[in-house]
Amino acid sequence: MKRFVCSWLLLAIVNLCAAQTTLPEFGEITADEKTLTVCSFDKEADAVVILDQASADHNEQYNLIFTRRVRLKILKSRGNRHGDIAIRYIHKDDIEYISNIEAYTYNVTPNGVADIKHVPSSAIYRQKINERISEVKFAFPDVQVGSIIEYKYTTTSKSYSYLNDWYFQSELPVMNSQFTLVVMPNYEFAYRVFKSEQFPIEIKQEKGSGRIYFGMKNIAGLRDEPFMDAEKDYLQHVEFQLSGYQGTFGGTTRYMTTWNEVTRELMSNPVFGLQLNKNIPVGEEWINKVKAMSPPFERMAAVYNLVYKAVGWNGIGGIGTTSGVKEAWEKKKGSSGDVNLLLINLLKEAGLEVYPLLVSERGHGKVNPEYPFIDQFNKVMAYVVIGDNKYVLDAAGAYTPPFMIPFSVINTKAFVVNRKKGGIITLTETAKKDKNYVSIHALIDDEGALTGEAIIQSDEYARLNRMRAWARDKERFRENYYTTYQAGLKLDSLVLNNLENDSMPLEQQFHFSIPATVSGDYKLVNLNLFSGIAKNPFISDIRFTNIDYGCLQSHTVVETIELPASLKIESLPKNVRMIMPDTSISLTRLLEVKENTILVRYVIATTRSVFTAEEYDYVKDFYKKMAEIMNEQVVLRKR
Fold it and tell me: Model pTM?
């Protein structure tokens, strides 16, 4: 499996010969591209990127000028979706602008004639995503299997601080990926390369010009995998950060080359550190009431709940403010930086020990402590210390009780921003779990149909995850958690209790029915109901990413199933206990028959929440056997 190599180099130090692979001109299709029908190194792919080439340079005003060109071919009908293009940019304060867009579709007609259709400017439009981000969108015409589509564009940014990392790999396989960076005079950039040992990379630099070239070829696509870490952690890519500036009178100013320097820069920054001592007008009466609360935890919870309920998140991320904490309070809305820096202000006002905490949510990517790159983080949260207890609070996002670590940052590294007590910490959670307890009472009729009532108590992270899923899509909630277990399963009278009580499990009550499964004279009954394991989620032959559940799992199912007098048990699954060699995953099934009642108990538990890609085959095989065991059926027959 993949083992990533991290490289850290200063452009001023590297001294390699310049060279670059010759590329076909825009619009020139080669004979090999015309006859390409399958990607040889990723045969499952529905499309392949033939070329992804970009360069970053500057103009006389030292704006960042980024040009990109992409060519890909559609290999299967489901690949037609790649003909819809959306390119994001920062429109706020004219930070970025996209121009010089050209695009076309290349097809070959049945009589062998080239059919080229250009995307007209009238078909290219801009769409505002939020107060900060917009998209340029267009769709290629006449996209079909065999189409080659190509487009290019230019992004003009105010400065090199908006230089993005370069990704050689994507969901699609990439045949040729190239990126060239031209560093401005007197500036130094640090970069680090993340790549698998199996994929060679070409890095070349022109001596004295500040031009450096990166190239990779024939990289298989990385597609979605169950319980995967952030995709970017496994994509082959190179990251950049400004590391120094040489002044007019000599000498070089270094930027954030140590974590202490990161702290110094952040705490003196107007959109971060200087926002932490603002006087927020919450009212003297309220703040005095909070200060009078004796237990510090109650003070913390009161401040957190106030900010979470009073100030909405506008969907914009980032670690700094976009409008300022006072304006966010006045408008009752702001970015994640606005909301959580405001939260830190009020926690300090309440007399609590609190520090800014830079986090990288699991979907954003892992943090490497060896490299003080600020772009490794995508959000700031509040880090509160009360005695020996540490709390992580996020008022911008899905609600999390203050006594729980936000689910999105479990199993990640974070950075406490403080000169004396700061540094990299690891956020782990072993006490609170994704915990479900299922109680079922059901009856089987003379025909073998099953009807009953279920009560599910979802606690801790299971409670949070299910509440969010319920709020997001109630119909999908039913499908994901209940009806997926067996064809024809229906439920009604669904009631959710304790929605507003954080200290109680989320209780779900409902009636359900399952039609009879008949094989000749036999009635088959599936006992695997609402256990969390309807089937094996791991079906791919290979795995590129770690398996990360986020937290530990604990699922218990207790069933009482009454049989009719007309049916008798022909065969019954055996009691079984299955456990991984390192005891990290276990399954226990106990069955007992008392008179006309079957008593069933399933217990599924994990003692680890993360499994490496190298362990995938073991986990996959274990889940396959576990799903087979759990789906073993009771066989009934007429007396």
Answer: 0.75
